[in-house]
Design brief:
Distance between the termini: 70 Å
Number of helices: 23
Number of domains: 2
Strand order of the largest sheet: 2-1-3-5-4
Shape: globular
Structural class: alpha/beta
Number of strands: 5
Helix content: 55-70%
Radius of gyration: 25 Å
Strand content: 5-15%
Amino acid sequence: MTAESTFARLRTEAESQVLAIVAIGAALRFAVGATIGLGVDESYAVAVARQFSLSYFDHPPLHFWIAGGIARIAGTEMPEVVRLPFVLCFAGTTWFTFTVARRLFNERAGVLAALLLNVSAVFSLSTGGWVLPDGPLMVCTTAAVDRITDILFSTGRGGSRLGSWSLAGLLTGLAMLSKYHGVFVVAGTAGFLATSRPHRRWLATPGPYIGTLIALACFAPVLAWNAAHGWASFVFQGARATPSAGVHLGALAANVGAQMVWVLPWIFVPLAASAWRALRAGPRDAPRWFLLSVAAGPIVLFTLVSLRGDVGLPHWEAPGWLFVFPMLGAAAAERLAAGSRRTRLWIRWVAWGYVGMVVFAWSQASTGWVARLWPSAFEHGDPTGDLVTWDGLSGALDSLGFDRSRSFVAATSWIQAGKAAVAAGPSVTVLCLCADPHHFYYMQDERAFLGRDAVIVHKERAGDDVPVRFAPYFESIEPAGSFPVTRGSQVVMTVELFRARRFSRAYDTAQPR
């Protein structure tokens, strides 16, 4: 057997292993997605995606377009249907993580990077199959970085490579259409080219600039929508980074701790060590320095933002940690090549431990068995309760004689508006009457519903007085019963209903129209 045929066989084996990881992971995520309801962010996304928009209040439009498109094509908003494209997105993310690591390091590094990515909670669970912007963001960013590494690190190719730069720009633009994090591919690549002497020559070619222009052109719908709506999305997202008085080290520690929990501590620590290794080596280790350049933006920015006092959300940094996985795969491959038994046991433990964790969480979310066996386990609320669909809403509306052609459902928060809209179906108009209605504010002009009757839906919570809160907006409000949100025979929460007669004025909000 020649050296070339041996290499080809090994390459085929590596690709087969990654395809097996992709297939097993996709099957597991689809099974999970088919047996549990949509979460609060997913319900909101599916609800507002019913109406096409150039962009949306919370995020750029791509994941809304995907969710709305698949629902219209399939004629249903069933969880397994709207989640399917996002399961496929993560399959692509896994593959491109493999190809990036393979090109920069070796085959084994690529396989291990793909495997470890699939056993990290924040990536494999939420990004891996939920209706969130992170799914298309990550497949587009890894595909873009795959093209850029091919340009920068493949030997024997000269010229400006305009076609490859253009494709990388298109993929980056699609990432920016998914989530604002996409801009870090542009910033990270520019930072790498400026600091790596062997690669600085690319700054004297038209390729990077043409790619950037293409990415910005893809982003044009977001700019157009924001320009027409008082730059609402930029104001909303920018407010999260507005500094407050003092330096809040406790918030910083909580932020890092949350990242560790969501990535999983036994993966986060080696990830951080891989990033530190790249930082210490600097531009001398060009492959790792490039990955760190792309990864650093979201990790550093959103970690330091917590110093203002707001802990933030742990998945904000995840698009950065995504590009550390090829480095972690390379480090694990080096240790395995050196005969490290500890590394081999660690890989087995994290893989099988993850499977056990998913089975535990999945079974609780779909059946609620933990809450039944140990009622005190969720004294402050069942965290999986928001994955239960409000199936009783349509029947409750019918029992009240709800007129779908003349009346509307009023929800008291954007979260509850999303759950109500998905449960009631597209034939029911849902208005979000609150100070922070998010994109519901742009779907309907509340003033068009003045004089109409409504049914207010409100998740029961101690201390809330719905009639008092909404008295300025309706001529009269009276309790109209409630319905339980159930998981099997288990009551997860209770939703209150109120008859509200003659909507008299739009709800007060600071969101620009």
